[in-house]
Amino acid sequence: MNEKTIDVLAIGNAIVDVITDADDAFLDRHAMAKGSMRLIDADEADRLYADMGPGRELSGGSAANTVAGLAALGLRTAFVGQLGDDELGQIFAHDIRSLGVDFRTPPRADAGPTARCLILVTADAQRTMNTFLGAAQKLEKAAIDPAAVAGARIVYLEGYLWDPEQPRAAMEAAIDVARSAGTKVAFTLSDGFVVERHRADFLRLIDDRKIDILFANEHEFLHLAQATELLPAINDFAVRVPTLVVTRSEHGALACSGEERANVPAEPIARLVDTTGAGDLFAAGFLAGQARGKSLEDSLRLGAIAASEVIQHYGARPELDLAALAGPLLQ
Amino acid sequence: MNEKTIDVLAIGNAIVDVITDADDAFLDRHAMAKGSMRLIDADEADRLYADMGPGRELSGGSAANTVAGLAALGLRTAFVGQLGDDELGQIFAHDIRSLGVDFRTPPRADAGPTARCLILVTADAQRTMNTFLGAAQKLEKAAIDPAAVAGARIVYLEGYLWDPEQPRAAMEAAIDVARSAGTKVAFTLSDGFVVERHRADFLRLIDDRKIDILFANEHEFLHLAQATELLPAINDFAVRVPTLVVTRSEHGALACSGEERANVPAEPIARLVDTTGAGDLFAAGFLAGQARGKSLEDSLRLGAIAASEVIQHYGARPELDLAALAGPLLQ
Fold this sequence. Notes:
- The structure is a homodimer.
- The first copy, chain A, is of the alpha/beta class.
- Chain A has a single domain, classed as 3-Layer(aba) Sandwich (UDP-N-acetylmuramoyl-L-alanine:D-glutamate ligase).
- Chain A is 38% helix and 21% strand.
- Chain A has twelve helices and 14 strands.
- The first copy, chain A, has helices at 24-29, 42-51, 62-72, 87-98, 146-150, 165-181, 192-207, 218-225, 230-237, 278-291, 296-310, 322-326; strands at residues 6-11, 15-21, 37-39, 56-59, 77-80, 102-103, 115-121, 127-132, 152-158, 184-188, 213-217, 243-247, 253-257, 260-264.
- In chain A, the strands form two sheets. A nine-stranded mixed β-sheet of chain A has the order 6-5-1-9-10-11-12-13-14, with helices on both faces. Chain A has a five-stranded mixed β-sheet with strand order 3-8-7-2-4, sandwiched between helices.
- Chain A is globular and about 50 Å long.
- Chain A binds chain B through residues 21, 49-50, 52-59, 68, 86-88, 91, 94-96, 98-99, 315, 317, 319, and chain B through 21, 49-50, 52-59, 68, 86-88, 91, 94-96, 98-99, 315, 317, 319.
């Protein structure tokens, strides 16, 4: 087992979010499924952007948001993701490094423009995401430093990155390094449509015992398990993965690890603004707890605290001092 | 007198804001005067950005914020400002056009990068601005379409643009067109240091009767008038400019127009977040009232309403429906 100098190394899409308010009619006109993520090409990104209102540009990307949360909680983190050689790429790199995240993936001019996610936030605070992957889908196996993976307690992977071929191969390589280095592998299913596209692959990873911690929301989990009732499905599935975490929005979250079960309510909030990043920050809180050897229940509570902060403002990364919010739970 | 198809045409710096939280120690370390704006060059912009936390990128620019507010209030607006041929420029152009503002100034590759303003917001909600003017200072007289100026009821100019030579000449040309076309000229002093640098020029414009509506905050006005006591200074100065508007932050605002005097308190707010754009949006509300023929007092009240919205969130442009907030005042 290698010496662990990093708590969590995440591999994910390096994306800048472009966030705007929209109404349901806008989603209907563009045939979007509210609350989901879809991939769009450069032309569609241009058309959609032209039709959108004024944007707020903020660094995003699912796993990148999670490491931003982990860094805010005081953990040692690293991120791997592909940027284009452009201004949005400079913004992403600046933002993640300014949080103290070790980010070394060089931008590539041959990879196309930096990924952007056009996010429509409706009055019910739901976010509907349209991702132009651009350079992010060009992440190569060569960008993964085996020593960095081996030097991490946990490597965290996002299901979104399973769509394009090259990053998928890079993640599989990272899993193999992790397996032989005593690095735990955490994986998020990311989105119901992602599960639909890659269900067989994800089940293979799980049944090959390549995933130690699996994150899903209720909807994604039921898709994966091909079930309709949550609790029996979780009981059936719990034997297949060492740690299973299922988030349920305002109904809280639950986790199973071996025989252990835990269940927490959602944190109370003053004002729901934008749910973008809720799952990412939940994962941050939970992983922080696990990396620090906390109980399953305390890890869930940390997840709920981190998620509650991010849904009370626009953008998918924390604005308040998460470590202070976590307080004694993480000490 | 030409037919007026536009209510307000503004000429200003086309800037993307990069907003981050900072503490007083950060301002001290970088020798910044809290609440003011200073100009920085490309190297200093790079150094400061590297030292800053993660940013929110939002379109800004003082006069551009004002037209964004006017558009949100339902007025017909146009904007003139120089962008570079880059991604930040595309963001600025998208955002302002998506609000319905007529913006036609072509980006120029030979003008350098699009201007950015690095804004540090402290816990007291004060904003301290560091502007790299880039392409904005290359605005040429040729970018001003005399027919567009003549077709506006009001042309609105920002004092910030007085610093660089080319835009200053462009604004002087616009004033001359306005004078002969029956277009009113509104001017904001922008910043105390700007007044310090250009006091003689501003007084010359005023005494040559080239300014119909002068906006200043208390601090800027006292600098201009070289006075220490506000009310006597306003009384003395009121004879020199047709309409004088002085904003006083939480103490409200007052205006003089000929013999008429009006005075309004600040609007009550729930939560002060970021004062960026307060003066710009005050000007938007006031000009909307004037363009619609409202009284001096109602115009001030519209200014106070628009300013109160923008200081309750990050960013210098309205997020809520300003026309709804203004309600019967603007009907």
